[in-house]
Amino acid sequence: MIKINNLNFGYSKHQLLFKNLSMQLSNGHIYGLLGKNGAGKSTLLKNLAGLVYAESGSMDVLGYNPAKRQPALLEQICFIPEEFYLPSVKIDAYVKANAVFYPNFDHPYFTSLLAEFDIPVGQKLINMSYGQKKKVIIAFGLATNAKLIIMDEPTNGLDIPSKAQFRKIMASALTEDRCIIISTHQVRDLDNLIDTVIMLDENSVALKASVEEITDKLVFKRVKEIDETVIYSEPSLAGFNAVMPNFHKEDSKLDLELLFNAVLAEKNKLKPIFN
């Protein structure tokens, strides 16, 4: 679905955000795009949506170059940005003006998502809280039935119950012909949702692996003492939360936040395990 080859991009010629970045993404997956602030998560998403253009390299999205912004591709991409503006209209007027750009827009599905998010449909968008606005555009994005759904920090502004609703809705929104990419710095919000982790660091992809591969090669556990087998650890009340090679094929639950910190601190130790 997406092929990126030797992508180089920077907002100035003297400072590149990406250097020879390459990866492939497939349909039928929910990817979690992680990285520190400034690592280029939002910029990569904008490249995919054709909102900014690379210095060099190639990018193929559904068989198209997104930089050309061809209508046949744009109707299959829904990009939900972190910052957005909604006009002073009611939801039905917003849908009437925007749903026409998506030939597969599902109006009943959109209505059901609004009900699940508990959105007051008669209220003007401009008078809603930030969290309510965010839920409206998430519902609209999913109802487009676009093949590529791109979300930049979608859980910002959502309270804890709404984040649980979001995870439930996103898990049911994935289909075999759809690819969903979610970028966030709130790592725990993606727990039990994503099936593949992509981490950006130092102008490149520091880690790209499925949750299954990660838990097959690494074990996340609490230990009383640190020894040479521990790749990364953080103090806890009862010892240390540790990331270790999974020599004995133990079952453990992926700790996304611990993995995130481990990659940033010890990527040189982790790279051989995944390469």
Name the helicity range.
Answer: 25-40%
- The helix/strand series, from N terminus to C terminus, equals EEEHEHEHHHEHEEEHEEEH
Globally, the shape reads globular
- Provide the CATH topology of the largest domain: Rossmann fold
Largest pleated sheet: 6 strands, mixed
Classify the secondary structure makeup into a structural class. alpha/beta
Q: Gyration radius, to the nearest Å?
A: 20 Å
Which CATH C-level class of the largest domain is it? Answer: Alpha Beta
* Low-confidence spans: none
Second CATH tier, the architecture of the largest domain: 3-Layer(aba) Sandwich
Tell me the number of strands: 12
Compute the separation of the termini in Å.
23 Å
Strand order of the largest sheet: 5-6-7-3-8-9
Task: Work out the helix count.
Answer: 8
The average pLDDT value, as a whole number, equals 92
CATH level-4 homologous superfamily of the largest domain? P-loop containing nucleotide triphosphate hydrolases
- Strand residue content: 25-35%
Protein name: ABC transporter ATP-binding protein
Organism: Pedobacter frigiditerrae
GO molecular function: ATP binding; ATP hydrolysis activity
Pfam families: ABC_tran
